[in-house]
Amino acid sequence: MGHTFKKPVYDDIGKPLYLISTTVDITERKQAVDALQAREERFQTLFDRASDGILIISPAGNLSRPTILSPYARIHA
Fold first, then answer.
1. What distance lies between CA 2 and its chain's CA centroid?
2. Could you report the per-residue pLDDT of 42-65, keeping only the tens digit for each?
3. Is residue 40 within 8 Å of 33, Cβ to Cβ?
4. CA–CA gap between residue 53 and residue 40 (Å, rounded)
5. pTM of the prediction?
6. What Cα–Cα distance (Å) separates residue 77 from each residue in 5, 50, 69, 70?
């Protein structure tokens, strides 16, 4: 999979001479984006189905979000 950039080159009077084209292989980037999206969807499903509240805390001890409760825990709290 690639992303192509094209740029025409013109002479002094504006007549097209040739086209410069560069293709960048984005296969690995696309695969990484797809894998991240799949992980996020799995996390969201787990979160949505959790029967307990969930807090996400950074290694420094800070909350990622102010308060995170799964929908189930919110209804039954």
1. 18
2. 888 887 777 776 767 778 877 665
3. no
4. 18
5. 0.53
6. 54, 13, 9, 10
